Amino acid sequence: MMCLGLNRKKCVLGVVAMMTLTMMISHVQAGAISTFTWYSGVASVAGTSWAPPVAPNNDNVVGASPNAIFVTQKDYVGIGPVDLVFDVINTGGVTEYVVTEGVQNNTGLDWSSYHIELGFGQGAGFVKSTPGDGLDFDAPHHDSPVNFNPSPGFFPTVTYPTEDDILATGGLMPDFTFAGYFVFNIDVPDGISSFTIRQSPIAVPEPATMSMLVLGSVALLKRRRTH
Ligand SMILES: [Ca+2]
Ligand SMILES: [Ca+2]
Ligand SMILES: [Ca+2]
Ligand SMILES: [Ca+2]
């Protein structure tokens, strides 16, 4: 009906334009996080999804936030940072999200800890978020559940070196194991166009490196004794 009097090419262009407009409008109405991109040479990311926040401006929620970001699997094939970049639109306040993600260690190395940071940009252009800028890991109260110790047990200890750092330690994530799922929380403020979750596994030093460290220490001790 809408194409009466138009040739086929113009008709197709018109329909595409209308569909694009509809998608743009639904994005604007979606609130908070609107798009998502990941950057890494050391991991693949599968099945990431997010729903429009069901409870925008819910900072500071106690307990699990109903606003969820879900990453089915992040599969590391090497040690290094993975940057997940989220575009953001204003909602009129700070929206708290719970992030749930499966992490696969395919690096050939055991991990001694797992580090997550908040910031802006990606790769060499990554800039850390600053204290008090509204973007943080559910600081200052940390009143929603976190978990880096899913079965059979990986990192039972979680610390916050700053409001923009999570360090999960106290255990081991062996090579070729899957953690399903790590859980943490972020507060997303108005006034930013995007932000980045940077994640870095930290490997246990290899035996060869350890041996060299020990040999180095012995050599140092010997030298001290002879002087
Ligand atoms: Ca909270
Ligand atoms: Ca911050
Ligand atoms: Ca919060
Ligand atoms: Ca906060």
Essential attributes:
seven-stranded antiparallel beta sheet, alpha+beta, 11 strands, four-stranded mixed beta sheet
Number of strands: 11
Please tell me how large the radius of gyration is: 23 Å
Report strand %.
35-45%
Low-pLDDT stretches: 19-31
Order of helices and strands: HEEEEEEEEEEEH
Distance between the termini: 96 Å
Mean pLDDT: 84
Helix content: 10-25%
Which helices and strands occur, and which strands form pairs?
Elements: H1 8-30, E1 33-39, E2 43-50, E3 68-76, E4 82-88, E5 95-105, E6 111-120, E7 127-128, E8 157-159, E9 165-169, E10 178-188, E11 194-203, H2 207-226
The protein binds calcium ion (4 copies).
Residues 60-61, 96, 138, 143-144, 185 line the site of one calcium ion (CA).
Description:
The structure is a single chain. The protein contains two helices and eleven strands. The protein is of the alpha+beta class and 227 residues long. It has one domain. The strands form two sheets. Strands 1, 4, 6, 7, 8, 9 and 11 form a seven-stranded antiparallel β-sheet that branches. A four-stranded mixed β-sheet has the order 2-3-5-10, with no helix packed on it. The chain is elongated, with a radius of gyration of 23 Å. About 6% of the residues have low confidence. The structure holds calcium ion (CA) (4 copies). One calcium ion binds next to loops.
Describe the structure in brief:
The chain is an alpha+beta fold and 227 residues long.
